[in-house]
Amino acid sequence: MNKVLLVEDDPRVASFIIRGLEEQLYQVKNVNKGFDAINEVMENEYDIIILDIMLPDLTGFEVCEILRGRKIIVPILILSALDTPHEKVKGLQAGADDYLAKPFMFEELLARINAQLRRSEFSSGIIDFQSYAGIEINMKEQSATRDGKELNLSSRELKLLIFFMKNREKALSRIAIAEAVWNLDLDMNTNTVDVYINYLRNKIDKNFPTPLIHTIKGTGYMLKNKINES
Q: Strand 3-7 relative to strand 213-216: parallel, antiparallel, unpaired?
């Protein structure tokens, strides 16, 4: 589940965003001051920050500059009523990754969040994502093995496995999987995600004693090695 830090001092806007993101299975923490946002990011890990500019203490620009100065590389999406080209340039120069003006449609906010998460995932991800529970991914050869056995994955299956490996031991919704693996081009009224999960299961679990892909009821799927759990 992706963790979002929402820095917004308007309760109505904050409530609207929190409700929408939680329906999409995001975990959201809301703070309403710049210094609180900085402390929160320094003490806890977040996947993305949604940042207002007009805050009671610091401006969003100052929060950006401070976080980037402290080598915090979490994606920052500025969400502000200030929508002039000058303000947008100022936000990006301060270290923001994207800028969305208020008022906004929630669907656009969600699309921008997911775009930033995809960029972050494929540019950094888990440093050692290529190895887990006997699975080894060879990015150069675009291939994968489990316990030394070649898995013979298609390009889409490999991309799906990479997404699981980078998010191992996390519950992943079908929407999150579709957006990462199909880049928003998938019709969610189809069962394509489930079909490809089954394809992948047949290759990485079927002939091995310990299954790694697990169905999470009401959520989606998880890649996890449960062999050591009591």
A: unpaired
Separation between Cα atoms, residue 42 and residue 26, nearest integer Å: 20
Omega of the bond prior to 103 within 30 degrees of 0, cis?
A: yes
Length of the chain: 230
The rounded Cα 150 to chain-centroid distance in angstroms is 29
pLDDT at site 59: 95
d(CA 224, CA 221): 10
Q: Which residue has the tokens 């995932």?
A: 121
Query: In this structure, what are the phi and psi dihedrals at residue 45, rounded to the nearest 5 degrees?
Result: -95, 135
Burial 8-41 (b: 16+ CB within 10 A, else e): bbeeebbeebbeebeeebbebebbbebebbbebb
CB 27 within 8 A of CB 171: no
Beta bridge partners of 4: 28, 48
How is 173-208 classified by DSSP, letter by letter? EHHHHHHHHSTT-S-TTS-HHHHHHHHHHHHHTTTS
pLDDT range class, residue 45, cuts 50, 70, 90:
confident
Q: In 3D, which of 82, 79, 106, 81 has the Cα closest to residue 20? A: 106
What distance in Å separates the CA atoms of residue 221 and residue 143, rounded to the nearest whole number?
Answer: 22
| Identity of the amino acid at 74 | V
Q: Is it the case that residue 135 has pLDDT exceeding 60?
A: yes
pTM: 0.56
